[in-house]
Amino acid sequence: MKNFILSLMIISLLILGSSCRTIQRNDDALRIKKDSAFKYTVYPYNLNIIRNGNTLRGMVLRLETVMVPDSCVDNKEPNYKIENRVAFLDAKASDLRFVEYIPFDDVDFIGPKFEQPINVFEDYNYPLEPKKFRLVPWDTFKVECHECNCTPFSLSLKLPSLPCIICFKCPARICKWYFIEVRAGYSTYRDKISPFNSVWKDGYYGETAFGIRFGYRKQYGIGVLLSTGLPIYNSFTSEEKIRPLALLHFRWDPFKNCCKPREKTLLIKVQEKGCDCPEECIEEEKKEKLELPHEKCFKPYFFVQSGIPLDQFSIDLFKLNISRSDCKEKVNASAPYLNVKTVPVTFTIGAGIDYPISSHIDISIDAGWRSYAFGESQALLGFSNVPSYRRINMFFIRAGITL
Q: What single DSSP character describes residue 332?
């Protein structure tokens, strides 16, 4: 009985082993042009591995022609860009997850030199031996445009017996390489109507920012913000002046996923030869580029800003600090109670929430704190416009749109 069970186990193992063997590899040589060899000296999946960039050793899976649309516009047939490449599995690769795609322009094809097709490759152990040449498939893929959509958003009480109270779809956000923000703001702050008399004030203003997005998810942005500014007193004359701002603007969207129009790869020409085991198959459906995940419709963002006011008093103070004359020393000696040695640099920090109302526009609301530095002016030392420095702190809320 024991012998029977042992024999049965051995037969089962043999059947399992023969029914799904590991991928059968060919030992091909892929020659690279001399001026491109430097690109392939380092194995891309392990930068510590150095290889011969002139001739790569591994398995040529196939040649590929990929047709990619130059743009995706509704109801319009796009023009296609053609990309030819070699699908190559290095000898050091453990499985098909580590396929490299090498452009035709970098490959030194051996076939045409022997009056054979371009998709012929030589055995690494028998270089330049036509009897050992191997013909590989040449497949064509077409990328088609498909609209990408977010997962539906629902606001519910999280009780399984109750339906959602508000149910609507969240449109997928498609981001350009640039961003534009338009905001209306309200701010409250404590100002000085005179050197010894403070008052609470508030005011409305407008701001616009523009810049570039970067990061693999377009989650960072840097640019310039322009603000109409707020009316702030010149405490020496009790005169109100609008203080416009120019600030360097940096924003961070930690959960932003800017998706592109969905691309689906269709196999036009299939491989001529099938395979015995799943490991040997290159699953064409995995070539489909899926939509980027969208966790939430409401996405927070954070921003910091720094810059200077653009009113005349602040510009005069800035000029005084960068001037090579002895004006600053004279003012400081005659009126040491004035701060004339500080450049009026404004700082802002804040956070907000974006909600996409379309694929290209977010509604945004945020709040923050701004340390507002500016220049003042008074008649002193025979001059009518001696500048000095003052700073106030203000809290604000803003609402607007982001493109």
A: H
Cβ neighbours for 313, distance < 8 A, ≥ 6 positions apart: 234, 241, 374, 375, 376, 377, 385, 387
Q: Can you spell out the DSSP letters for 77-100?
A: PPPEEEEEEEEEEETT--SGGG-E
Burial class (CB in 10 A: 0-12, 13-18, 19+), 321: middle
- Give 3-state DSSP helix, strand, coil % of the chain, rounded to 5: 15, 50, 35
How far apart are the C-alpha atoms of 232 and 244, rounded to whole Å?
A: 10
CA dihedral over 30, 31, 35, 38, signed as positive or negative: positive
The residue among 154, 312, 179 whose CA lies nearest residue 253 is 179
Kindly state the average pLDDT of the residues 268-293.
Answer: 37
CA distance 148 to 257: 12
Please tell me the distance from the alpha carbon of residue 259 to that of residue 185, in angstroms, as a whole number.
Answer: 30
Predicted confidence band of residue 276 (pLDDT cuts 50, 70, 90): very low
If one counts every other C-beta atom within 10 angstroms of the C-beta of residue 258, the result is 18
Q: What letter would DSSP give residue 131?
A: G
262-267 and 220-234: which strand pairing? unpaired
Residue 212, classed as helix, strand or coil, is: strand
pLDDT above 90 covers a percentage of the chain that reads 33
| Segment 368-389 mean pLDDT | 79
Residue with tokens 């534009």, as numbered in its chain: 180
For every residue of 147-211, DSSP letters joined together read ---PPEEEE--S-TTS--SEEEEPPPP---SEEEEEEEEEEEEEEEEETTEEEEEEEEEEEEEEE
pLDDT tens digits, one per residue of 341-350: 778 889 999 9
pTM (2 d.p.): 0.51
- 10 Å CB burial of residue 3 (0-12, 13-18, 19+) is exposed
CA torsion, points 225, 227, 233, 236, in degrees to nearest 10?
50
